[in-house]
Design goal:
Layout (H helix, E strand, L loop, with lengths): L2 H7 L28 E9 L5 H11 L3 E13 L2 E7 L2 H14 L4 E4 L5 H14 L6 E4 L15 H11 L5 E2 L3 H7 L13 H9 L5 E4 L8 H5 E10 L2 E10 L9 H14 L4 H17 L26 E2 L8 H12 L10 E6 L5 H6 L4 E4 L9 H16 L5 E5 L2 H6 L4 E4 L1 H6 L2 H10 L2 E6 L2 H8 L5 E4 L16 H11 L4 E3 L6 H9 L4 E4 L8 H9 L3
Parallel strand pairs: 1-2, 1-4, 4-5, 5-6, 6-7, 11-12, 11-18, 12-13, 13-14, 14-15, 15-16, 16-17, 17-18
Antiparallel strand pairs: 2-3, 7-8, 8-9, 9-10
Length: 550
């Protein structure tokens, strides 16, 4: 089977940032991994089989990850509530952890119901020992009470142990709003207390975690949250930062037992597979939303969610992510709902080659050669004048007007482009992030076509939130035209983008050979970008390579 055919069949993405845990050759099937990553979950046993270690095990299995269930507490519960909680003695918790460390060292440890200060202390001792000679990430799902009600899980001494011992060691914290308030010592509804997830997340990060996700599946108070299940993510990692609302349609299912456990364990599994924190949260959102949709009855109360591997290739489960704390007004919610509920995008009406040049004088020749998509990419340099840039863009727009079958995309310089009458803009995610809210709205209201770059799962989710004309995926192959931190996406990620984006996908980066043009089309790309390749052969050569991809 050719590389392109294999990539088209593959249903799994791979990490876009360097990681010692990211396989050099991406797996075709996580479930057939001959040596799956190991994670631990220190949590409680749910006698009803809905939450706790039962949910953790199902979520890990959906990622093809080996989960070691470490018992911190036994609960007497059913689907209607928790009757009693029995913390395990510290010696029994230590014995489990020490024995596992000798043979099944983890990449990630996830916590759930801990139920005692002794469990916290035992975990911290073992975690510190493990971290002396390896990287071990800590994911904390602060289970402080049951949604269904019943026995208390957490007293003030345990809360203090969370704040003083666990949070300073934490990589990712996944509370709901009420748990976030309790960790911060706040009472719900207190005047003057922060009530917005962005403020709560920022306060929690001050206590140690590199990333906080305040889940909102059980919070449907605001109008936007009645239509959308919104989680606020705040990631401040050394190699990437991301903040925003992670959104999918709110589901009506009453069978939601174990959603918090499933979310945290899914994030732990994704991290163990080498995904960066923000990407792990996108995958956790996808897995948990799908599990909630497929939840089933078990008992008279809320039944358990059902995590299955199929979430990874289901476009309906691909969320949108806002660019920071966008206002949750009617216009924003409507745009997100349209992006989320739209059918998978058909191919763009004009498929083919997409030529990128920094020379406006070259555009006419490229259009006459048959390139239907042209981009003027002029990077600002020291000493360059705005007047010269304005003239270059104006001349480019005029040249494109003489070729009605050609679309000209202006990269970055959106204000000058709109003033010159441009009909299409391409912006990188950093460029869009730097815009003020009124500037973003001006572009969205202008009616121009918008193309957005993306390099990772969280950037794909952010691009989707704008419902753009296309989403660029890159670099597909290694490139020297830009200095970037990203790993090459390869044909496997390109094919996954095409399946999940909901918009036409443009392949960009390292397309310098005819075979790569052919493979990009076979992977489903709507366009293949040519930059350095324009100097290597004429348009007929590249067009023949594109047509060979049919």
């Amino acid at each position: 089977m050719s590389e392109a055919a294999t990539a088209t069949a593959r249903l799994y993405p791979h990490p876009s940032l360097p990681s010692p845990w990211a396989a050099e050759q991406p797996l075709a099937d996580w479930l057939q991994d001959p040596a799956p990553p190991v994670i631990w979950s220190l949590a409680g046993h749910d006698s009803g089989g809905g939450a706790g270690l039962s949910a953790d095990t199902r979520a890990a299995a959906a990622f093809g990850v080996h989960l070691c269930p470490v018992l911190a507490a036994v609960t007497a519960q059913n689907s209607q509530g928790v009757a009693a909680v029995y913390p395990l003695p510290a010696a029994q918790i230590r014995a489990q952890l020490q024995t596992l460390a000798q043979d099944l060292a983890p990449r990630v440890i996830k916590t759930g119901l801990l139920a005692s200060v002794a469990a916290v202390q035992a975990l911290c001792e073992q975690l510190d020992a493990l971290r002396r000679d390896r990287t071990v990430l800590l994911i904390i799902d602060p289970v402080l009470g049951a949604t269904a009600g019943g026995a208390a899980f957490c007293d003030e001494a345990l809360l203090q142990a969370y704040r003083e011992q666990l949070l300073p060691r934490c990589d990712l914290l996944t509370p709901n709003r009420r748990e976030a308030e309790r960790l911060l010592g706040l009472s719900a509804g207190d005047p003057g207390s922060p009530d917005s997830p962005p403020v709560l997340a920022a306060a929690l990060r001050e206590l140690g975690p590199r990333a906080v996700c305040i889940t909102g599946g059980d919070d449907a108070a605001a109008p936007a949250q009645r239509e959308l299940a919104l989680d606020w993510i705040d990631v401040q990692a050394p190699d990437h930062q991301a903040q925003g609302w992670l959104a999918l349609p709110r589901l009506p299912s009453r069978h939601h037992h174990g959603t918090g456990c499933s979310f945290a364990s899914s994030a732990a599994a994704a991290l163990a597979r080498g995904f960066p924190l923000a990407d792990a949260l996108v995958l956790a959102k996808m897995a948990t939303w799908s599990a909630l949709r497929d939840g089933h009855a078990a008992g008279a109360g809320a039944g358990p969610v059902r995590a299955t591997p199929g979430f990874i290739a289901d476009p309906r489960a691909m969320p949108v992510l806002s660019f920071g704390a966008e206002p949750l007004n009617a216009g924003t919610v409507q745009r997100w709902r349209q992006a989320l509920l739209a059918a998978p995008a058909a191919q763009a009406p004009e498929m083919g080659l997409y030529a990128i040049t920094e020379n406006p004088q070259r555009l006419t020749a490229l259009a006459e050669a048959g390139y239907t998509q042209l981009q003027l990419r002029i990077k600002s340099r020291p000493g360059s004048s705005e007047a010269a840039l304005r003239q270059a863009i104006a001349s480019a727009v005029q040249a494109a007007a003489n070729h009605p079958r050609t679309t000209l995309w202006i990269n970055d310089h959106w204000q000058l482009a709109l003033q010159a009458g441009a009909r299409a803009l391409h912006l990188g995610q950093e460029d869009w992030s730097a815009l003020a809210a009124d500037q973003r709205q001006q572009i969205l209201d202008s009616g121009v076509h918008l193309g957005i770059s993306s390099h990772s799962l969280w950037e794909l989710a952010r691009a989707r939130s704008l419902a753009p004309h296309y989403i660029a995926c890159g670099p597909v192959w290694a490139t020297v035209t830009k200095d970037m931190p990203w790993r090459p996406q390869g044909l496997d990620n390109l094919a996954w983008w095409v399946r999940m984006a909901g918009r036409p996908v443009v392949a960009i980066g390292g397309i310098t050979e005819a075979e790569r043009v052919t493979e990009a089309r076979r992977a489903g790309a709507a366009y293949a970008c040519l930059v350095r390749a324009l100097e290597q052969a004429d348009a007929a050569h590249w067009q023949a390579a594109w047509e060979a991809g049919l």
